[in-house]
Design a protein that fits this description.
With 268 residues, the protein is an alpha/beta fold. The chain has one domain: NAD(P)-binding Rossmann-like Domain (Rossmann fold, 3-Layer(aba) Sandwich). The strands form two sheets. The protein has a seven-stranded parallel beta sheet with strand order 3-2-1-4-5-6-9, with helices on both faces. The chain has a two-stranded parallel ribbon with strand order 7-8. Helix 1 links the parallel strand 1 and strand 2. Helix 3 packs parallel to helix 4. Pfam families: adh_short. One of its GO terms (molecular function) is oxidoreductase activity. Keywords: Oxidoreductase. This is SDR family oxidoreductase.
Length: 268
């Protein structure tokens, strides 16, 4: 088995996935990325540029494709995968009564089933490199408290939170750490894709107009690194997510009121 540690990242063609790939590569890790965006993955690998990187076309909704992707990546690394970063996800916005069946099923399939399939496929690889291996799942601050006009998205992220907590216990005997990220609003292409029928502004512009915190994507990889090497189950990203998590525990009615106000300011 190779001595160089290896991480596989879904959604590695842009956003959090790309930023995390670059961060781990700079620290000497062999980085593999999976995505349906081949051009985006090529850009990520070009930016890494050290020869210890690998890309594979991966639709996280395809269970068999997961096994193929991780098996080939393990071969490329010399037989090891130390971290599986279940990061791929999409947004879906608007009142739930306006969401189409196709939109809902796609969000559920990518954000929730994709994480489940990734965990299943990664387990035998992570067990080989345990103790010290880790499964990291991208949840959201929307897994702390449901967000208006993002109800389906929030549901998927609560599911990711639940899976993380369950596997943290289930996989403890195998020596595999399991943790989630709970980012607030991060400046990624997903954020720009969230719009309102009542506004011509992008999701980012609407959030800024409403006084919300939008963090640059570069703040996320260090939190991923800390999740891989830490002992907590959930890791918030950004001041807003940290505040909401604390308030949801001690002042839930306050969070409820703030979410209602945020929904009103966003045109809910």
């Amino acid at each position: 088995m190779s001595e160089r540690k290896a991480i596989f990242i879904t959604g590695g063609g842009s956003g959090i996935g790309r930023a995390t790939a670059l961060y781990f590569a700079k620290r000497g890790w062999f980085v593999g990325i999976g995505d349906i965006d081949a051009l985006g993955m090529e850009v990520t690998l070009d930016q890494i540029g050290n020869g210890f990187s690998y890309m594979v076309d991966l639709d996280v909704r395809d269970r068999a494709a997961w096994d193929r992707a991780l098996d080939t990546f393990s071969t490329a690394t010399g037989g090891r995968i130390d971290v599986m970063f279940n990061n791929a996800g999409i947004g879906i916005d608007g009142p739930i009564v306006d969401n189409t069946v196709e939109e809902i099923e796609r969000c559920l399939d990518i954000n929730l089933k994709g994480v489940i399939f990734g965990a299943q496929a990664a387990f035998p690889h992570l067990r080989k490199t345990a103790p010290g291996s880790a499964l990291i799942n991208t949840a959201s601050a929307a897994a702390i408290w449901g967000v208006p006009n993002l109800s389906v998205y929030s549901a998927t992220k609560f599911g990711v939170r639940s899976i993380t907590e369950a596997l943290d216990i289930e996989w403890a005997e195998s020596g595999i750490r399991v943790a989630s990220l709970m980012p607030g609003f991060i400046d990624t292409p997903i954020l720009d894709s969230v719009t309102s029928d009542q506004s011509n502004m992008s999701g980012k512009q609407q959030l800024l107009e409403a006084g919300m915190e939008v963090n640059p994507v570069e703040v996320v990889p260090e939190v991923v690194w800390n999740a891989v090497h830490g002992n907590d189950v959930h890791y918030t990203v950004g001041k807003m997510a940290k505040r909401v998590r604390r308030a949801a525990r001690w002042f839930p009615n306050r969070v409820r009121k703030e979410m209602k106000a945020a929904g009103a300011s966003m045109g809910n």
